[in-house]
Amino acid sequence: MAPGSSGTESRSESGPDDSDSAADGAGRARRPRGRAEVREALLESAQRLIARQGPSKVRLREIAEDADVNFGLVYQYLGTREELLRAVYQRVSARSATRFEHIDDLADAIDIFLTADDSVGRIMGWAALEGDPADVFGPSPGLQQVASMMVRAARQDGLDLPEDEARLLAAFLQVVALGWRLFGSIGLTGAGVEATSDVDRRVREWMRTLVESVVRGGAG
């Protein structure tokens, strides 16, 4: 089964419909020019198409057409398919990291995990299904920032949270949050639970309780 968005909060799926075409036309009044514009347009199209179809089904020519860019520039600016996937993830990862830059509260970090770009989870899911994610995904600045926040929070209470444990917890939180957003409604249906805003609130509370338990020394 292909990775898709099925979280409990209302989210719109971007498909190849009229609204997509209108949005693309409005956002790109002219063809991209120059290395920076062309590369950004290619990565934007690649991220959208890969999240929707999976990397194995997306052709480089299709990405070029979607970005309104000459096909030859795909290899010039992005390289091989593996290099393209890595560039897409690094782009998403860098954008996600900026959301953590100006927060100090771990509760806010959890909210960011739970409201992350859905395409991140889809791309990660496709990579896990179609190949070795380690070949595509590198270190995440956002996860490093969250881990550092946990270490600082523990120190404020006079506790010593090992850096590797903080990084492990940050990774766990990301996976739980992405899994909930992608497959939460499926799990709720199977358990006979109605999808409501209160359900999402409780999930947030459970994640915060887990973080507090580890950071404040309640778990070893």
Description:
The structure is a single chain. The protein is an all-alpha fold. It has 2 domains: 55 residues, Homeodomain-like (Arc Repressor Mutant, subunit A), CATH 1.10.10; 123 residues. It is 67% helix and 0% strand. It has 10 helices and no strands. Helix 2 crosses helix 5, helix 5 runs parallel beside helix 8 and helix 8 crosses helix 9. About 9% of the residues have low confidence.
Summarize the structure.
The protein has ten helices and no strands.
How would you summarize the topology of this molecule?
Blueprint (H helix, E strand, L loop, with lengths): L17 H10 L6 H20 L6 H8 L4 H6 L3 H18 L7 H9 L3 H13 L10 H16 L6 H29 L5 H19 L5
Helix pairs in contact: 2-3, 2-5, 2-7, 5-8, 6-10, 7-9, 8-9
- Taken together, the total number of domains comes to 2
- Could you say which structural class the secondary elements and strand pairing correspond to? mainly alpha
Shape assignment: globular
Q: What percentage of residues falls in helices of 4 or more residues?
A: 55-70%
Total number of helical segments? 10
Please indicate the percent range of residues in DSSP E strands (runs of 2 or more).
under 5%
